[in-house]
Amino acid sequence: MAGAQSQHRLGIALVLAAAVAFSTAPFFTRLLAYDSWTILFWRGMFGGSLIAVLMVALQGRAGLCDLVGMGKNGWLVTCYSTVAMIAFIPSLQLTSVSNVAIIVATGPFLAAGLAWLWLREIPRSRTILASIVALCGVAIIVGNAQLGSDILGIGLACLMALAIAAMTVMVRRHRDTSMVAAAAMSNFLTSIVCIPFAHSIANVTGGDLLILAMFGFFQVALGLTMFLLGSRLLPSGQAALISTLETPLMPFWIWLAFAEVPALRVLLGGALVMGAVIADIIGDRSEQKPSA
């Protein structure tokens, strides 16, 4: 029992850290003046390379075998992750950030629904309630969203949210399978797909390469690896709920780096999201103490 509780706490810590890493995407993007496909290409190359190097350095031959001999479950996670990463930037180009954010915020519901259909994993009522509160917070943050004729962008955002939810459930179901190799391969696969559309791959300056390396290493490699490792230790709905912390943290980094003061609705909505996640985590701890 104590071991299971420790694993659960570790899962929460990993997914929390992943949400922080994921939330830095707007910060790095703001520093780069290239087309999205060029950014995706270099981010994927740097991110995938770091994960592969870490696997070989920490696991030796076993890490190399995981990369070369990844099974079908790992490849499914790779495909889900690749679809999500590729759909993200074009969806932002075709529709507003508000539309994309509110669609991505449905992730906990999608993950919980898929987990119920696929794993018969019944979501806890506390997590469902916290998910609803978090969704309300995100709705306040993106209160200016306007659904218009940008159907393709909205469709890509829906595809991204569904792919992330499916990836979360897949990792949860096959928790005994090494998914870190899938994180590396999804980055490389993303770069390969972006080659025909990227126009400035060879025109990136040395300084921007350093920024792209940090983008790939921190936001993608560490974020995706920690999320995949943490998701296998948590119920799918809870992992998706904790990851919604990414939404209120995004404007925080922009405020910190570029002195852009968030609107009042962003502060209020962010407080609701963070409060919902914290309440769910505290509820977990209070449940575990009596059982211990």
Task: Tell me what the structure shows.
- It is a single chain.
- This protein is mainly alpha-helical and 292 residues long.
- The protein has 14 helices and no strands.
- The chain has one domain.
Question: Can you give me a brief rundown of this structure?
Answer:
The protein is mainly α and 292 residues long.
Write the layout of secondary structure elements.
Layout: H1 2-22, H2 25-30, H3 36-59, H4 61-68, H5 72-94, H6 97-104, H7 107-119, H8 125-141, H9 151-173, H10 180-194, H11 206-231, H12 236-243, H13 246-258, H14 264-291
Helix pairs in contact: 1-11, 3-4, 3-10, 3-11, 5-9, 5-10, 6-9, 7-9, 7-12, 8-14, 10-11, 13-14
How would you describe this structure in keywords?
mainly alpha, 80% helix, globular, 14 helices, 292 residues, single chain
